[in-house]
Amino acid sequence: xxxxxxxxxxxxxxxxxxxxxxxxxxxxxxxxxxxxxxxxxxxxxxxxxxxxxxxxxxxxxxxxxxxxxxxxxxxxxxxxxxxxxxxxxxxxxxxxxxxxxxxxxxxxxxxxxxxxxxxxxxxxxxxxxxxxxxxxxxxxxxxxxxxxxxxxxxxxxxxxxxxxxxxxxxxxxxxxxxxxxxxxxxxxxxxxxxxxxxxxxxxxxxxxxxxxxxxxxxxxxxxxxxxxxxxxxxxxxxxxxxxxxxxxxxxxxxxxxxxxxxxxxxxxxxxxxxxxxxxxxxxxxxxxxxxxxxxxxxxxxxxxxxxxxxxxxxxxxxxxxxxxxxxxxxxxxxxxxxxxxxxxxxxxxxxxxxxxxxxxxxxxxxxxxxxxxxxxxxxxxxxxxxxxxxxxxxxxxxxxxxxxxxxxxxxxxxxxxxxxxxxxxxxxxxxxxxxxxxxxxxxxxxxxxxxxxxxxxxxxxxxxxxxxxxxxxxxxxxxxxxxxxxxxxxxxxxxxxxxxxxxxxxxxxxxxxxxxxxxxxxxxxxxxxxxxxxxxxxxxxxxxxxxxxxxxxxxxxxxxxxxxxxxxxxxxxxxxxxxxxxxxxxxxxxxxxxxxxxxxxxxxxxxxxxxxxxxxxxxxxxxxxxxxxxxxxxxxxxxxxxxxxxxxxxxxxxxxxxxxxxxxxxxxxxxxxxxxxxxxxxxxxxxxxxxxxxxxxxxxxxxxxxxxxxxxxxxxxxxxxxxxxxxxxxxxxxxxxxxxxxxxxxxxxxxxxxxxxxxxxxxxxxxxxxxxxxxxxxxxxxxxxxxxxxxxxxx
Length: 795
Fold this sequence. Notes:
Layout: E1 35-41, H1 56-67, H2 82-85, E2 86-90, E3 96-101, H3 103-110, E4 115-120, E5 123-126, H4 131-134, H5 144-147, E6 155-160, E7 201-206, H6 209-214, H7 238-247, E8 251-256, E9 259-264, E10 272-277, E11 279-280, E12 283-285, H8 286-299, E13 303-306, E14 308-309, H9 319-329, E15 333-337, E16 356-361, E17 365-366, E18 369-373, E19 378-379, E20 381-382, E21 398-401, H10 408-411, H11 420-423, E22 427-431, H12 437-446, E23 451-455, E24 473-476, H13 478-490, E25 495-500, E26 504-505, E27 512-513, E28 533-536, E29 540-543, E30 562-565, H14 568-585, H15 591-600, E31 613-614, H16 623-626, H17 633-636, E32 641-642, H18 647-656, H19 661-668, H20 674-680, E33 691-694, E34 703-712, E35 718-725, E36 731-735, E37 738-741, E38 747-755, E39 764-773, E40 783-791
Parallel strand pairs: 6-10, 6-13, 7-10, 13-15, 15-16, 16-28, 21-22, 22-23, 23-24, 27-31, 33-40
Antiparallel strand pairs: 1-3, 1-4, 2-3, 5-12, 5-14, 8-9, 11-12, 17-26, 18-19, 18-25, 20-24, 21-25, 29-30, 32-34, 34-38, 35-37, 35-39, 36-38, 39-40
Signal peptide: 1-28
Domain PA: 399-483
Domain Subtilisin-like protease fibronectin type-III: 686-790
């Protein structure tokens, strides 16, 4: 489930169709010499940037004229004109443009006065009938949905692979009118026009210039034959799935070919959706993402949902972090996926402190599909194949086949690796890895196999992301896989049958942190704990395009309005929906207040009242795996206290990290003197809802004081008392220990002293700070919880 997997159930290489291939006549042979660059400029008119009265497009074109010779000046008359090199002009979340340049032209542009940075375009990857109920959302007059008006009046912008507008999840019956402030459009294109938008789907745009510029031009390439729409229409499914998870309408009788049946709803079913197609079959390019963010903020979205990203990189090189900063300044809540590179430490992506970063967790819903071996043993597995539920007898007994001792390709059931003579009519065991899980089932079916057992490797452990396979199949954990293979090798004719158990709810311990969910601590900002929270991200059922089979495979002719996917991509829109609910309940709140409400009300115990565990290990999940905990929307809409952050505070925070003035400008577009700023703010710490402290390993300071300020957003005349659970070996003191608020909106500050002088030989330690409201006859006593994480990073 790494970032190189487009979504968790498949390894899919993303490709563009020939209709989107970037061909430019006779200039095609120049293509290899040109690359896409994103150019950041100093503010218009400040230092040689051009005439402040000219349009942004003209301003950007002026820079290209200075660095790109015109065709008249070229020996090669086929060279493109400078104007043809400009891909995007950015206006809102970024000052600059994207253009096609040679290495030499990029260097020349970089040397011009008024240019802040020139960096090459970067490719990133894409990171429910029941999940809303698991989150405690229900139709109740006093519930979170009612108090937040189901998210009405809020627009959630989804940057992804587009949208399938005919999905019943985007039906606008019962939706309020489109907000008057909305400035978005429904962009026409291939099989998409203005009538595809409505009061639910209020906007749709697409961005392909970055892809067309970076993609191979050979039309004979196999990728060119992959179907794609040159429009906002989703040919892949990922975007439709995430958009419906965040704000899909209620759909009765939803299921995946009969499995997981129930009523589908998005987390904020009353919110509007705007789709920005920035990802295609071969990934998502930063130039397109920035263009989508630029339009989304200008259109008037309230929440941006980004189920995409890469590996941790410095913030001043991260286009998503840079664009999201400007979005935050303009009042937009930016929610992003943490990435699927877990359980490796420090694998979390989208680490910027102004973003809400989301990891993935499990549900208590299971799809059992048992393997009954010939020796009488029964192995637990899971599958969403729509087989007949028959736990007593199961299916037909078949001979088992596993390519032990054969080729590596056959063990992994790679396409074309299996011999019909070996597998025809048999139950084939396939090792997990290298190719997608659903692809293995297709390979078995093409070779004549009757059933597949997908066997987890040691690295996958007991992780159980299911798929809608094209043949009867089940996924077994690593322990079961070891026993299965041992049985196969113990007898000359091993046999087994599969018994499908349907859908089971409430019997599994949940939530638990998903094995694949990326972990902290943050590489770029160790004084900010990431991820922020976890949310449902395993086996999530949501809307699906009508042109794609539920397995996502090209050869799957079945059709379903819904399918199942797993990944932090699925967790992210759950939190985007919660952010929409909080924004609807509290329209004047800043993005930092919205994030604080979601974080400080998160759960750290599962549905059984026990500590949330890390995957299937049974061990307690730490703050680097789950952040503040598992989201609880019912509490988030009424948090009691919130930690607010002004945009200028993020600038000061970047200075505390040792960023240079130039690097801070690249991120924030603010010209600052860090020395002066830090001198004016001695002892500054970011007013973040979680508390993270990084001490140098083997020397340096062993104690620090952090300052925090909370705002009362609950009842007046409220008093809160501090309770501290100090990390092992670390002393934590809070002063004052009582906060009394006379009025709504009143602010109170406190200090947290962290003394780690006695904590020798540790890598990390964690605890918590809780502000507990005293009973005052006002109903629920609010609890405002902040995790405390202390690390000793190696120098």
